[in-house]
Protein: Mannonate dehydratase
Organism: Salinicoccus kekensis
Amino acid sequence: MEMSFRWYGNDDPVTLENIRQIPQMKGIVSAIYDIPAGEVWPYEDIVELRDQISAHGMRLNVIESVPVHEDIKMGRNRRDELIENYKETIRNLSRAGIKTVCYNFMPVFDWTRIELDAPLEDGSNSLKYDETLIKDIDPLSGELTLPGWDLSYQTDDLKEIMDAYQKIDENQLFENLIYFLEHIIPVAEEEDVLMAIHPDDPPWSIFGLPRIITGAEALRKLFKAVPSKNNGITFCTGSYGASSENDLFEIIDVAKDRIYFVHARNVKWTGERSFQETSHSIHDGSLDMVGIIEKLIKEGINVPIRPDHGRMIWGETGRPGYGLYDRALGATYLNGIIDTLRNQDEIQEETT
Ligand code: DNO
């Protein structure tokens, strides 16, 4: 697996120089953040990002994400035009040598939490989700600070969009996803680009909005509807694993020939549909990180993997979940597991 790290570009307080010093760091996962959702990413901008990363001894291996415009998710009239733009972005990425694209199909809100710096016992802090508290929040009141609401996801008129979603149920949203895929996957095939849908985080409906990429059953349905191998997934342990009802081993079985990108994150279940993010260690969270990595390796899955969110430790402040220190510890933990499980002769060969 190719150890990778998410980097938010030149505004990220975590620098490429910092990231390069994490042992065995090979890949950078990034995006072009200043282009509004729905517009074409110019080839030149992609090349500039790619070359900047290469100049630091790593490679831009995954785009996370090319956002899908709400009009596509809602199946509105403008979707065909927006899908054409998306195709053009896929072509431009491919021409620049970038062959894996992560995206999601979550209505309006990307990943959602109730608290961005909830204390943990050890004095650090991390992101937390509590269904009982979320239920009392009106997303229109502005009370919610959304960690995943990048510029690219912002909408001018939240209320109008939330209202429009009242008419879209899970089946309709799924149909809109399939419509989108039926149009873009042929281009991904031509361009040799792997599309990797990120699960809904958390994997259940929030604020009355439909959510559809939630577990093994949903993936079976997705692959049946669009069988192309370019229609794949981001296997995000923390998103699927936020629900204690999801069996991550079953999800690997269902998706094993279509896992193109791995997000490794641990979470501790704190109640029904409630959890807090922890270090990557199996001793801290509810997920069997060692067993999961072992299964991925056994299945021959050799794709970019990144430590997902980290806690804020050692006084670090910054983008929630995306500081340097705990993600670096996570990468090192994951590398330890991977190196132990991998064929030692192969590792020897690589190092000599
Ligand atoms: C959160 C991330 C998500 C992810 C998108 C993918 O930390 O995993 O925001 O980037 O959902 O499209």
User: Anything to note?
Assistant: The longest helix spans residues 170-191. The two ends are 19 Å apart (CA to CA). The first strand starts at residue 2 and ends at 6. The chain has 13 helices and twelve strands.
